[in-house]
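Encode chain A's predicted structure.
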Amino acid sequence: MQLCRLIEVLETNKVTGSQAREIAFICQDSRKVQEGCLFVAVGGTQTDGHLFIPQAVRQGASAVVYQKGCLKDELVITEFCNGTTFIEVPDSYRALALLADVWYGHPSAKMVLVGVTGTNGKTTTATLLYRMFSQLGHKCGLISTIAYYIDRDLVPATHTTPDALTINSLLDKMLKAGCTHCFMEVSSHSVVQERITGLCFAGGIFTNLTHDHLDYHKTFAAYRDAKKRFFDMLPAGAFALTNQDDRNGSVMVQNCPARSFTYACRKMADFNARVLDHSVDGMQLSIDGTEVWTSFIGMHNAYNLLAVYACAAILQQPREEMLRILSSLRTVSGRMEYVRGGDNLTAVVDYSHTPDALKNALLTLRELVRPGQELICVVGCGGNRDTTKRPQMARIADLYADLCIFTSDNPRFEDPETILDQMIAGLSPEQQNRHLRITDRRQAIRTAVKMARPGAIILVAGKGHETYQDVKGLKNHFDDKETLTEIFKTG
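Encoded structure for chain A:
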């Protein structure tokens, strides 16, 4: 594609060099630059792409997009401008997204793309929408924390919302595979970093908003506003579906150009649900007056299922088929997923890595505990993430569980003992004495199983679907569900 055609979408401050160059591909990773490449230098939390512009040019980049004020040495333009064109933009993240959309021929505009945002429930809602619409006979794509799917083909996931080039590449592959719909998680990071800029969404879903990612956004208001920006981006013909029971639901659609719909389990809304009965095996729901049995448990899953139903209804799917499929859907990997053991023990693996998610999981399980049974919680906190939630997580675990075992999650580049110290700092000495601290996660899970009385429920929280433990940059194999299964078998 001609460079002059590509950069028509950009808000360029200045262009140095020829615009008549032929571009072979677009790249944001300097290590992958080859001859004919358009290299887009973006900032990052670990490294700044602008530092690698000279390297990219030497590797054959035909053109370089850089952000105003971020070029470390402007002499590089003078040195290389004869062989490379330099394009200055106000925001290189935004430029990358707009270029990716053009490069792949605006794939999002050729399908029904629905984004799901919120603190908790994004993965479950997006995944269940993908499963439901697939069963309704549509070829679908999925972009989620757990996996990316192109129809039935699995692509390993790298981020909740990948970079703009990856998103558009995936959408392009989905189109070529015949997909008509795609459901994707939209993280707050992706909004702020312009990864979804240029995408044409047919609709957006808001699940809820609680404490998370303050290490990145710094304030709750900034985190909330990042979520709202997604809804502000929706076109007039799209729909905005929000949780009426969450006080931030109405905030999301203030001045939103899209058609607004609500769902709720407590207030009156466009779509309503009630939990009629529940047990360890599932719950009976009333959805808009029709009773449906589902294998999911917990109020949070009632909201997730209702959001799936509401979205399908807005997209004019047949109601009877929607309800039938809803009752057949199964738990998403690592989301309140059961492992059964001897002595009537039940272990639940859940990706409860925020205070609100942990509280919801424990409250759900607490309602299922019968007299004489106990609820045990194995929980930790990830390293290099929001530290303010660590003492909160410990207090919530202490409040709702009979026994807590505080352990390591993904320490990343932090000392796991320091993370545990910060968690336990939220407890009084008396509370600390009621619980255990076992840094080794495998040993913590084994201890929970050994100490559990017959009929106990054990929540292993924080990692969910993850099959690794991130320690000092190395991802060592570790799977909570696999570990529980092994311990239940071997003792």
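The first strand starts at residue 14 and ends at 16.
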